[in-house]
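Let us work through a complete example step by step.
Step 1: write down the sequence.
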Amino acid sequence: MKPIVLATDGSISATEATLEAIELAEAFDAPLVAVSVEHVTLPSYGYYGYGEILQELTRIESEHVEQTLERVRTAAAEAGVACETIHGTGSTVDKICTVAKQHDARLIVIGAHGWGPVRRAFHGSVSTAVLHQAPCPVLVVPGGHEPIAEDAEIVMLEPGLHA
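Step 2: predict the structure and record it as tokens.
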């Protein structure tokens, strides 16, 4: 059975994609392969202690990826979906597409941050790059919005007033 590949970074949009991927895997009675890729943003300059900072950033990112994959494993298990997880390093887009190709994926499910053109130009778009390089169909799931806490105070302003 061809698996559904989920690409996740643990963000809110990735959470929406995770729910969709699990639902699709359940509907198709297909296994799920979840991949999360380490992405360490490095300072562009070196100084005394740079090596230690790099090690710490890498450790933190590795832990984040493992926690993200554990959340996917737990959610899939609760839905009765078999789930393999892959902790990737290197180019995010290349790793996602390689995993999909190696597993002969039916589909890649990935979230979209919903960034505007300026932020997308600055940060790039993993989902767009995956769309162009994937060896199979890609479902880009729009991200949800930050949930509002039940006890949050909502302030309505009268016309002409500014916060």
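Step 3: interpret the result. The chain has five helices and five strands.
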